[in-house]
Structures are given as C-alpha cells and as structure tokens.
Design brief:
Blueprint: H1 18-26, H2 34-43, E1 50-59, E2 62-70, E3 80-85, H3 92-104, E4 114-118, H4 123-128, H5 150-159, E5 166-174, H6 177-191, E6 205-209, H7 215-225, E7 239-240, E8 243-244, E9 250-253, E10 269-275, H8 284-304
Parallel strand pairs: 3-4, 3-5, 5-10, 6-9
Antiparallel strand pairs: 1-2, 2-4, 6-10, 7-8
Helix pairs in contact: 3-8, 7-8
C-alpha cells in the first residue's frame, strides 16, 4: 500500500539515523512525574510489602529508580505470580491497575503464591506519555539477553532467577487511538517503511502465547473482565490488529520470539491485557478495574489449575 501519511521526521523509505532520533527526542515533552505518581505510591506500600530497587534508568539527564513490589514473607516453596505494568509508558491503566491490584487485592493471596509486581517498567516513557524509550526503542520488542533497552534489560535480570518458578505472568497494556495516529506512523518512519493504516479494536482483548496457548485460562480472564467492561469483537476479516481471533476477545503472538514482556518468565500461564481507553463506552476507572479483574482472574485460575 502506498504511504498515505508522512511522519514529520526523516525521509520516507529511509530508516532513521542518529540525527533523526535526536530530532524525535527533542520533540518529546515531560508531562507527568514518575516520582509523584509511582515512587510515592510505592513508598506508601512499604509497611505492607517488600520493595526492591532492581535498577536505575538514566535518560535525558534524569535518573529513575526501577521499583518492584514483593510479597512479604516470600516462601520459596510457593509458586510465583508476576504482574508487570507500564512497559509502554503511555498506557496509563497498566500502571494504575497494577497499583490498584496491590493496594486492594494482593494481600488476599498471602500463603498461596509469591507475588512480584512491577508497576512501571518504563519511567521515562511514563513521564513523556510515550510508547518508546528515550532511544526510540520499543521496550516491548526488546525483552531478551543483551537488550539495547535499559528498561527491558533490567527487568530480564530481575526475573532471571525466578525462571522455572513463575506459574503466571500478567502484563498490563492498552491499545489506544494514538497507536494509529502517532505510534504506528512513527515506527514506519523510523524503520524506513510505508505506513499502512489499520484499525483499533473497540474494547478489551487479550494476547495469548501461540507457542503454548492456554485458551481456558484466557477465557476465564475474559469472563471476569466482561463483568467490568466490553470485550472487543473481531473485525470483518475475523481479526484484531491483523491477527486472527482464536477465541472470544483473544489473539495470539509468539511472545518470547518477539521479545515481549510476557515471554520472559517462562510461566505456564501468560497473558497480555489490552484495554481500549478511548472508547466512548468506557471510563478511566472502568479501564483500571478491568486490569485488576484480569490479574485476579488470572491468579485464581492458575492456582486452581496448577
């Protein structure tokens, strides 16, 4: 398809070099505070949970602590549940939903599963409401050994000792209208490719692992979220974002091969949530509640089907 939209950085058909990346960075504006919204909220949980600083992100002359929340009285005989949010910093309900789960529901799992929650994987992206990191790299294609993304490399290192112990991993995301208006055109320009317009699913959906799919697990989450917000339908081709719909509200990716966050734990049960916050049929509160419902349903199913 002929390119229908010219992104204002670079030359169509030519991948970006450092000059174009610098131009892109110069256009990014800090719009919110990781210290106020994330660090302070983590600090408020220190009386109830263990908190670990698993790394420091350096970007644009700033440093950001990378923070993980752990169950108190961690028991090595129990399985592990991992919740990650804010891999894409602009996806707000992933961050807020992770916090709301910890604040309201996490302690109910004491003695049954060890929980490790990383509420904001990408602090610079959070502050700048960006999908990419400071180096114009998508962290959620970069979760592998030797990753060029600081955020991804740090999380891989944090979780590496737990590989083989993780029963369930829920990675909290959103699909927004800006995916189509900004982030996909930017990716096409960065990579020297033609931008091909697509669509945004209206509603919540999940991404399963195509290598080891768990359809009953995914449907248990869908059933819980359906009590909170609407589930995205397939398009006229039976797809969502170009992938076949394999079950109600579910598509599949080979998560580890693609370097996605959900692929780094080796868990039996993995899912990536996708909330649609721009729908006129939902609200920010409903989106946050959908993320919490996803985590609770995922943990409950995994513990019942160990």
């Amino acid at each position: 398809m002929q390119q229908t939209r010219f992104y204002p950085i670079g030359t169509p058909g030519t991948p970006w070099g450092e000059a174009e990346r610098a131009d892109w960075r110069a256009r990014q504006v800090r719009q919110r505070s990781h210290a106020d919204d994330v660090v302070a909220r983590v600090d408020a949980l220190r009386a109830r949970f263990d908190v670990e600083t698993y790394g420091t992100l350096s970007a644009d002359g700033r440093t950001y602590p990378l923070l993980a929340i752990r169950s108190r009285d961690w028991n090595p005989d129990l399985p592990v549940g991992v919740v990650s949010g804010g891999v894409h910093g602009y996806e707000t309900s992933g961050v807020v939903g992770a916090f709301e789960f910890v604040e309201r529901s996490a302690e109910a799992y004491a003695g049954r599963i060890n929980l490790l929650v990383v509420p904001c994987v990408s602090p610079w992206g959070y502050e700048h409401i960006q999908r990419w990191n400071f180096d114009a790299i998508d962290p959620n294609r970069s979760f592998r050994a030797g990753s060029p993304a600081q955020e991804s490399a740090a999380l891989v290192a944090l979780l590496a000792p737990l590989r083989g112990q993780v029963l369930v991993h829920v990675d909290l995301h959103e699909t927004t209208d800006t995916d189509e208006s900004e982030f996909r055109p930017a990716k096409a320009a960065r990579d020297g490719e033609a931008f091909e317009p697509g669509g945004i699913p209206d509603g919540f959906y999940l991404v399963d692992d195509s290598v080891q799919p768990q359809p009953a697990f995914q449907q248990a989450i869908i059933a819980a979220v359906e009590q909170v917000t609407h589930i995205a339908p397939a398009d006229a081709n039976g797809e969502m974002i170009g992938s076949p719909v394999v079950g109600h509200g579910v598509i599949e990716y080979p998560v580890e091969a693609l370097g996605l966050c959900a692929g780094i734990t080796g868990a039996r049960y993995v899912t990536t949530t996708e909330v649609y916050p721009d729908s006129p049929r939902t609200s920010p509160e409903e989106c946050n509640a959908a993320q919490v419902a996803s985590v609770v349903a995922a943990l409950d199913y995994a513990l019942a089907h160990r």
